Amino acid sequence: MIDPRILRERPGDVREMLSRRGVEHDLDALVAADAAWRRAASEADAARQRRNELGRAVAAAKKSGGDASGHIAEMRSAAGRLEALEAAQREAHGRYIGLAMSLPNMVHESVPTGPDSSANVVVREWGEARPAGGEHARIMEGMGLVDIERAAKVSGARFYYLVGDMVLLGRALVSHALDLADGRGYTAVQPPYMIRRDSMEGATVAEDLEEAIYSIEGEDLCMIGTSEHAMAAMHRDEILDGADLPIRYAGYSACFRKEAGAHGRDQKGIFRVHQFDKVEQFAFARPEESWAEHERMLGVAEEFYRGLGLPHRVVLLSSGDMGKVSAKTYDIEAWMAAQREYREAVSCSNCLDYQARRLRTRFRDKTSEATRHVHTLNSTLVATTRALVAIVEGCRTADGRIEVPRPLQRYVGKADIGAPRGRGPP
RNA sequence: GCGGAGAUCGCCUAGCCUGGUAGGGCGUGGGAUUGCUAAUCCCAUGCUUUCACGAGCACGGGGGUUCGAAUCCCCCUCUCCGCGCCA
Would the Cβ of A56 be found within 7 angstroms of any atom in strand B? Predict the structure, then answer.
């Protein structure tokens, strides 16, 4: 949710945001609902004040043994009026919230304006992006490192069994990411993989909830699409101590995605799947420090890919390509050698106070001070499946083995991966 | 899953039976005094809104009864104890 003050004082800026994002939204209805709600609230407020005064008068009269019947009669008639005013207030507030919750976040001035990814801007490139022939699905299946067919039989499309050394390599990515995060001031957190619907609604927008998120039938629970969802909601309805900021978490979890809008895209292998493991950077920051935190966070993710020796580039997403909760997003796109393309491996966003407002996460330095909403930021450190694809396609030796990136070797226990020693599935 | 007990302003707690402005202690912040640390005293210390005075809201959440609910009734959530089941 954006600050209602922006809506009231600078509606032109909000309109500009909508046009830059290419999103339709009934702003007039939202502004009207805001005004109606505030009016209804102050009317109901006045009626409550009158009721409270009368209540005190009744109590005083009864205490002194006097006759309170006159006041009680007046309260009786005021009660019906108050009820009607409260109903009007509830209705107006519901209308306002409904419209405000679906309004996307403001867009930062440094974000390029454009309809889609074609307007994204490449910020920098790293490493030598060499094309290669071996497609990850074929390589991995050929070496018995993944079983897509049986996963399809058991679970359906976009699932996979990882097998043998590929499991160790995935685990190594997670271990290395957690160690790096620890060294950069992040506290590791393994969050709940299912969260209640109202928590999910605070962390994401309604349309993503429908398209991307799995719900548990018969329960008020959703599967997280990323640990970001669980981390963002972690301090909901809290007032944090400003001295504790920034709070940096490295969320480690499985991620679940419906991929409902992706029919036909990236069908092969483990590139686009319903489930993967991810280590995610998440930060709660002071508003005046959040842009520096954003760059810092991107830097940690870049450090991870540089350390693995994986060629990649940093891209600043355009206004039309960004998520609705983000004010500015960088992607790190890793080189996928067989696709001969850079593809998204990391997404690093500053959400300003948009999530914090929805989740009521605030802070202050002294109890005498007014509360302010924190800023929330999130960035992938590593999504295992995407990184595995980049490694399998990009790190092949002349004799067809997969070279384990140096920082991962201590976790995998070997320098390269060949065919399994007769233990893989036939 | 069954039985029992609970949830009050950062922490502890009173109030609930018997409905009528949510009180106290600790901690924290500010001030006074005392040649220091300490002790003592005063003020402030849930949230929202207001330039301010003030007003409203708040006793886990939501309904209901009532002129009026922390208090009575119903539903839900969570915590603790015992039993059952279980990695």
Answer: yes
- The answer to whether A72 CB is within 7 Å of strand B is yes
What's the complex ipTM?
Answer: 0.82
- Return d(Cα A51, Cα A332) in angstroms, integer: 59
Question: What is the residue whose two structure tokens read 């993710």?
Answer: A301
Note the pLDDT of residue A262. Answer: 78
Per domain, the residue ranges of chain A are 4-101, 117-417
Looking at residue A215, the DSSP 8-state letter turns out to be B
Q: Which nucleotide is nearest to A78 (CA to C1')?
A: B67
Asked if residue A254 has pLDDT above 90, the reply is yes
Q: Which helix (H) or strand (E) holds A361?
A: strand A361-364
Cβ of A42 near strand B (distance < 7 A): no
CA A143 to chain centre: 35
Q: What is the mean pLDDT of residues A20-32?
A: 90
**Protein-to-nucleotide distance from the CA of A408 to the C1' of B5, whole angstroms:** 52
**pLDDT tens digits, one per residue of A116-127:** 999 999 999 999
Going by C-beta distance under 8 Å and a sequence separation of 6 or more, which residues neighbour residue A350?
A: A108, A290, A291, A293, A294, A326, A327, A328, A329, A375, A377
Nearest-5° angle of CA A394, CA A126, CA A120? 100
Q: What is the CA A366 to C1' B28 distance in angstroms?
A: 10
In A140-246, beta strands by DSSP E: 146-147, 161-162, 187-189, 194-196, 221-223, 238-241
Superfamily of domain A117-417: Bira Bifunctional Protein; Domain 2 (3.30.930.10)
What is the structure's pLDDT at A420? Answer: 59
CATH superfamily of A4-101: Serine-tRNA synthetase, tRNA binding domain (1.10.287.40)
In strand B, the nucleotides that come within 7 Å of a protein beta carbon are 20-21, 27-29, 44-45, 47-49, 55-57, 67-68
